[in-house]
User: Fold these one by one.
Assistant:
Number 1:
Amino acid sequence: MPRQMVILQGDNAQGKTNLLEAIYLLATTRSPLTTAERELIRWQAWQEPIPVARLTAQVCRAGDKLHLEIALKGDTRPDGPQSGLVTKQIKVNGLPRRAAEVVGLVNAVMFTAQDIELIGGAPALRRRYLDITLCQVDSRYLRSLQAYNKVLLQRNHLLRLIQEREAHPAELKFWDDELVEQGSYLVLERRQLIAELNQRAKVVHSQLAPGESLALLYLPSLGREAGQDLTQTRQAFEQALGQAQGREIAAGMSLVGPHRDDLQFVNNGIDLGIYASRGQQRTISLSLKLAEAGFFKDKRGDPPILLLDDVLSELDRQRRSYLLAWLADYEQVLLTTTELEFLPAEFLPRAAVFQVCQGSVGPLN
């Protein structure tokens, strides 16, 4: 058993997922479920003069104690809350901090029933997954990602001006250089991460699905060789930009770079994102998340917090037993369930069990 297993039992729509989302948000400064921060403020709060959401936590790690706080403040407008802007303030031990200074202080891995979308969903979901994972262990990656996104925005604006004959293609040189400078590091680190996850996920998947194989492939838009080293990646990036310039001007947007990368899951050359069954995709997503947790554990020297949102009900008995046995290597696990029957009888007495009802957490009746 892990040192701290917390089981949160409750009916659907009672707030179990909200609690795990809040913990993940404090760890990464980003929600695992939405990219729209206005959705993190309770909809009833938008009826108030000043809509606010506030998260706080006391974190103990290796004898060090931290107080984390994230406050979200909505700016309501006459045309309705959906247009309202949200400002986010982050504090550590009472002092204001930027997101880049907070991400990685606490590592968390979240399992949800929606994880199968990582396998067969849009490429943007897989890029976001890679980015959030890397940002938790590499502050340089986070800074490069932030800089890359800013450069990409400016470059796309310039491409539209060139398309409308309001600017000259020669003006792209500056933004091309910046895009290459920041983006090459992203490509390099993504390739290394996927290589590590691939090795771990293969082993896990062989236990979860005997007889089936799994491989994770990186598909950089710069070509399969990009990411072998920084110099080679820069050269490939520069060449790709030169070859794509005409198409980019015609489209009015940047068509090559890490913002167009993808991650593919294959079995003997078969794209599992297309041909795997829902059950197979669930097994693949579980293998990926278990590999991610192992990656954090080895990379940081500390096991991450594991957040499992109603995943047991989606697994058969064999996979459920494997997952519960695997959790024994981790120090803090929070697991939600609608029914305690999904857990073995011998498992419950060694865990702290709470009930979640209408947004409140209390002892199980």
Number 2:
Amino acid sequence: MNILISGVGGQGTLLSSRILGNVALNLGYDVKLSEVHGMAQRGGSVVTHVRYAEKVYSPIIDLGMADIIVAFEELEAVRALPYLKKDGRIFVNSRQIMPLPVLSGAAKYPSDIREKIKQQVKDAVFVDALELAELSGNKRTLNTVMLGVVAKATGIGREHFIAAIKQTVKPALLEVNLKAFDLGFKL
């Protein structure tokens, strides 16, 4: 299974990849993770690759080989599309985060992102994960909401994700992350 997680700095892509990695490890799979940061501390792109199988030889997902893309922001979803395999699935947080060139007026945020994604991917799911994260009590749990949404697509039971969240998330943030996961899972 090849899962690419794409977002911007501060959205929790790294935590999400560690949770997914722990889910797979706990099930006995060989797991490889890789991360790419692009000015992450300044809201730049962050992409993580999560690969698991009986044996995984490389941590990097090749173009056109991702089974699932999880995008925490719409523009990041478009940037990640070349990695998706022909029959792959994409899950996109429907909120937009304006990159620095847009904020400075040097560029314009594309207005037709959803249409572009839907033209290329027949199984595209858009979720207002920020709204659900706010319902959980902490908007920073957007990443865990998205994991909840994606959990069913992995074919792995909810209980395995709950165990991995408990194993990975700091105790002080555990309750709100479990609530966020369940809000996403129930969609």
